Amino acid sequence: MSRRAASLRARAGGVLGSVVDAVREDLDAAIARDPATTSRIEMALASPGLHALWSHRASHALWLSGARLPARLLSQATRAATGIEIHPGATIGRRFFVDHGMGVVIGETAEVGDDVMLYHGVTLGGRSMEPVKRHPTLGDGVTVGAGAKILGDVTVGHGAQVGANAVVTKDVPAMSVATGIPAQVRRPDMGLDPEQALYDEPALWI
């Protein structure tokens, strides 16, 4: 085997290994957030949220390479298959999970950090027709409840919780809770884990 062939084979093996590691990480993160599923194989076969995420990674790579029409076609095929619409231009972090998934929309200039969880019916939408940054930025560890709408170039800080059916049009500080229409922001009681706020505030779930 030539030196060049060996180098290409090693590079391909490294890429494949990285993909496998990323898929395992996604599966384990999803299982940790979904008590209805206990195995990787079930999650891999039956989670539309993961299917949409994996498809988005491919469409995003196409988008960045300049193959924008194939990227859009792939994203639309995924939308038809999963009910989740993620524009190929959106930036999605690691261990992202959409539970149930139906009706989720993520716009072109949205930026989503690591360990973010969205429930069904969530919209990360725009409020401008100009070709600018017009969709939300979600920090690491954000949770967005079912039916919530986060609109415009706003930032939801790390660890924040957005309640079900909330409409957010202003920044949400880190480690805070936003509920209502329009969303009102409050800080959890001192010493209360933001995750616990999900159970103390019913609007986060309904």
Précis, in short:
The protein has 206 residues and is α/β, with parallel strands linked by helices.
Topology:
Layout: H1 3-33, H2 40-46, H3 48-65, H4 68-82, E1 85-86, E2 91-92, E3 97-98, E4 105-106, E5 111-112, E6 117-118, E7 123-125, E8 137-138, E9 143-144, E10 149-151, E11 155-156, E12 161-162, E13 167-168, E14 177-179, E15 184-186, H5 194-200
Parallel strand pairs: 1-4, 2-5, 3-6, 4-7, 5-8, 6-9, 7-10, 8-11, 9-12, 10-13, 12-14
Antiparallel strand pairs: 14-15
Plain-language structure description:
This protein is of the alpha/beta class and 206 residues long. It has a domain at 85-204: UDP N-Acetylglucosamine Acyltransferase, domain 1 (3 Solenoid). The protein has five helices and 15 strands. The strands form three sheets. A six-stranded mixed beta sheet has the order 3-6-9-12-14-15. A five-stranded parallel beta sheet has the order 1-4-7-10-13. The protein has a four-stranded parallel beta sheet with strand order 2-5-8-11. Helix 3 packs antiparallel against helix 4. The longest helix has 31 residues, at 3-33. It is globular and about 65 Å long. The mean pLDDT is 88.
